[in-house]
Amino acid sequence: MQHTKYHKKDIFCIEGFWKHDRRKKMSIEKAMDFLQENSTPRINKTFLRCSTIAEFKAHITEFKLMRNDKSGILYLAFHGSPNALHVEKRKKLKLLDEEGMEQLATIIDGAAKGKIIHFGSCSVLNMAPAEIKKFIKATGAAAVSGYNEDINFIETTLLDILFFEACQLYKRPSSISNYMKANYSGFMRRSGFKIYF
Q1: Which of 181, 128, 126 is nearest to 159 (CA)?
Q2: 8 A C-beta contact, residue 173 and residue 143
């Protein structure tokens, strides 16, 4: 079905390094190029790499400066584990630490208000739904999406593209979620894809 109205959401992507050997070019960048070149409406992307928490913070500062444009999706692609992004070797950036202090939410500092935060990472959303809702409230995000299991890189990169396309079709996270379930429910179940709002 051809949509006549779109809800354009550009993507601000920060990607970590998947391999310690930087000569290995594993990256989602080509997938983002494909999405940008073939989407209707055209999705613009900002794509940045980082390997340290300091670089991550600098990139989030750049995202904050763009908050008034149409960058409706903050896409964070890193190794992950429950409640944590592995931004720097041997250092995890917690969404919520054991005392409940919102570390990632503190860095984002309101820049995601009304936006979608998507984690292209293993198991980050393997948390209690109440904790994810707490993170949403702390960041002001309209929705948080990602995976609650270890993921297959190629399969979930494809699912990420389908999700970002769905985000252009609907404004409300509930409508995006319903569209994804109607069209890709088996894919979502197999990969542990979740969306919270």
Answers
A1: 181
A2: yes
> What is the rounded CA–CA span in Å between residue 41 and residue 195?
23
Question: Domains, the chain, ranges and CATH?
Answer: 10-19+26-196 (3.40.50.1460)
pLDDT tens for 144-157 read: 999 999 999 999 99
CB 192 within 8 A of CB 148: yes
Q: How many CA atoms lie within 13 A of 171 on its CB side?
A: 3
Identify the CA nearest to 2 among candidates 36, 28, 40, 33.
40
Burial (CB count <10 Å: 0-12, 13-18, 19+), residue 84 = buried
Helices 29-38/153-169 angle, 10° precision: 30
**pTM of the complete model:** 0.92
